[in-house]
């Protein structure tokens, strides 16, 4: 099997640019995932984010998690399959950055953590937008097309799910996070470099996303699948709980604005439609998709696309 795609961003500057763009294209088409090295986020900043995230978990989250209904049952060996079928072995909180930050209102964060996260996510936002333009280039779309497609009236939505996956005595019984595709646009993940667990589904098999120090894992969400008319796919992934070690994961979602209208890029539709009629994706308002996703996150994406077709916002104008 091909090895997991790792992209050295430095090579975009030199004579290996063409080959690197090809690697990105192949990853988007065939994996839905890739990992970035030498990206624009300084290693020291990532180390600070990691230190502060782990300290925050120990101080404010760990006891609460252990006392939760799910954890106490599993830890005491009392959990049955039916108790945990809708559960994930994770401790999380959410930070919103765009269109309006909620960082000041999220409880229990130190000033240092807030300031460090602010610096970190500003760099991630820039990295996400740079990636969108690299995707545009590979797709033959004009520069800025994807960013504009995400804009709506208030600009994109950007937020970070901060997760910890504590050691679990029963990884066969309960998943860290059950299998799903991500609903949004492009996702940038800073994952623990020692405790693994993230897997993606490729050709019917679960493949590990290898922990790599100071890397950023990127994956494609459902909206990019729609806009690219299925050239790029959002791919099922999950987190397997580990018996040893606490896994840290900061997943930042660069998503369309709530009122953005999402539909296949006409340029891609024209070329693709001639090949296969059934590949046409729906046109919808992003927040309507998110309402549907809220109840169907752990199900296949195709019925969600079908349901959105039923909304029918009218034809997609082709040039
Ligand atoms: Fe996800």
Automatic annotation (TrEMBL):
PROSITE patterns: FE2OG_OXY (PS51471). Gene3D superfamilies: B-lactam Antibiotic, Isopenicillin N Synthase, Chain (2.60.120.330). GO terms for molecular function: 1-aminocyclopropane-1-carboxylate oxidase activity; L-ascorbic acid binding; metal ion binding. It is an enzyme of class 1 (oxidoreductase). InterPro entries: DIOX_N (IPR026992), IPNS-like_FE2OG_OXY (IPR044861), IPNS-like_sf (IPR027443), Oxoglu/Fe-dep_dioxygenase_dom (IPR005123), Plant_2OG-oxidoreductases (IPR050295). Residues 156-256 form the Fe2OG dioxygenase domain. This is aminocyclopropanecarboxylate oxidase.
